[in-house]
Amino acid sequence: MSRLNLIRIQELKDLDDDGSNETLKQLINLYYANTEKLINELANEYKSKNWPKVKQLSNSIRASSLNIGADQVVEAARKLEYAEADGIEKIGTEKLITSFGMAKNDLRIYLLT
Questions:
Q1: For residue 1, is pLDDT > 60?
Q2: Under 8 Å between Cβ of 1 and 104
Q3: Which pLDDT tens digit goes with each residue over 64-110?
Q4: Mean pLDDT estimate for the chain
Q5: CA-CA distance, 84 to 95, in Å (whole number)?
Q6: N or C: which end of the chain has fewer CB within 10 A?
Q7: CB environment 90-112: b (16+ within 10 A), e (fewer)
Q8: Structure confidence at residue 41 (pLDDT)
């Protein structure tokens, strides 16, 4: 599986008729800021074993990642979102956090090209 959905990112890139990529840059920066907050909150709720909240936050992360084309983050969030309560603890948050870090890197590189 690709870490980024390049078709989705191209669709976002095409929103700017002038080729400036300003809309894409703004969307990516919003994604970074919002998702980082959600992941920090998710990590805290995970430590507290508040599984319903973990599932809710995973849903929010999955949705925003789907919109921006961060497919690997989508998959990691989906696993947490749909896991049974006893499965959430086994899955953990490390894969989601790592995937988000890689997506941030990949999106930065994509903006430079």
A1: no
A2: no
A3: 999 999 999 999 999 999 988 778 888 888 999 999 999 999 888 87
A4: 91
A5: 17
A6: C
A7: ebebebbbebbeebbebbeebee
A8: 96
Domain boundaries, given as residue ranges, for the chain: 23-112
Total-model pTM? 0.89
End-to-end CA distance of the chain, in Å?
21
Please, what's the b/e burial string for 5-29 (b: 16 or more CB within 10 A of its CB; e: otherwise)?
beeebeebbeeeeeeebeebeebbe
Find tokens 């870090």 and name the residue. 101
The first and second tokens of residue 82, run together, are 């749909």
